[in-house]
Amino acid sequence: MAKTKKKEKPKKKNKIIKKVAAKKAAKPIVKKAKKIVKNKLPVKSKKIEKKKLVQKKVKVKEIKKIKEKSKTIKIEKKAIKSKKEEKALQNMKKKTTEVKVIKSSSKAEEKVDTSIEGKLKALYKLQQIDSKVDKIRMVRGELPLEVQDLEDELEGLETRVKNYTDEADALLASITEKKNFISDCKTLIKKYETQLKNVRNNREYDSLTKEIEYQNLEIQLAEKRIKENKANIEAKNEIIEKSNKIIHERKSDLKVKKAELDDIVTETEKEEQVLLSESKANEKIIEEMLLNAYKRIRKNARNGLAVVTVERDACGGCFNKIPPQRQLEIRQRKKIIVCEYCGRVLVDPIIASTVKA
């Protein structure tokens, strides 16, 4: 029995050894299989993850676009609302202005007489101020025009003297040139004369004599030109002297005239400035259309009267008779009436007396 037991033990050992060896042999195979699985799985998972990321990005972009569209729609809605509100406000304003215009027109219809009367008074006042300014300027007379004419004449004379002096200088320069030319010609003649002594042929002799003759002719022509230029210079100098005398006389006259004008201006300058400021103030009160018409009439009229009173049943500007019906309309002061003959604005004597007072 003991022998049999001893024999069984090695068999068991061999089995265990075989199992261990099989496990050891299987280990590298398992590792390889695991590695292959590991290498394969990540590639697929990466692709899936990439696809998911792309899908997420697309979704995010779509969401952003939807949000932007919604924002733009909201802004458009707000703009439409604001436009509608503005239109409503404008309509309200128009209605209110129309109501105001209707009210003002009704009031104006009630106060037609007074408004036209005020316009006529303003026009007549402006006319009086402008006529005072004209009187002040009439005191100066033709002095300003005379001063201007003298200044223009002096300018013309000075320019004339300048031009003549320039021409005289040019003539002098040409005289010096001609003199230099004559000296050159004389030197050439001397040269040709020396060459004549050493002549060998008749041909040379003829050519040299011709050259000498030509140079002599050139000298004669230059001398003639010098004489002409000298005569022109003398004539121009005479004109310059005369014009200088005239300039001296005109300058003395201008000084006297300017002194007279300055004295008159200093006497009337303050009064004129005051009147001009008053006329500007009155111009602001009057309507543009009326003011333009007044200025136009005033320019065309000789005496500068655009607004005139009715005196002895006649126009105060052209002295033509005015019919009684027209006179009645002028006294009523319902509209601005103009003279049929001269086109001046006609005013009732009562208005003139109130303005003067």
Walkthrough of the structure:
The protein is mainly alpha-helical. It has 7 helices and 3 strands, in the order αααααββαβα. It has helices at residues 2-110, 112-140, 143-197, 202-285, 288-300, 324-332, 349-356, and strands at 307-311, 314-315, 345-347. Strands 2-1-3 form a 3-stranded mixed beta sheet. Strand 1 and strand 2 form a beta hairpin. Helix 2 crosses helix 4 (202-285), helix 2 (112-140) crosses helix 7 and helix 3 runs antiparallel to helix 4. The protein starts with a helix and ends with a helix.
What structural keywords apply?
357 residues; mainly alpha; 7 helices; 3% strand; disordered N terminus
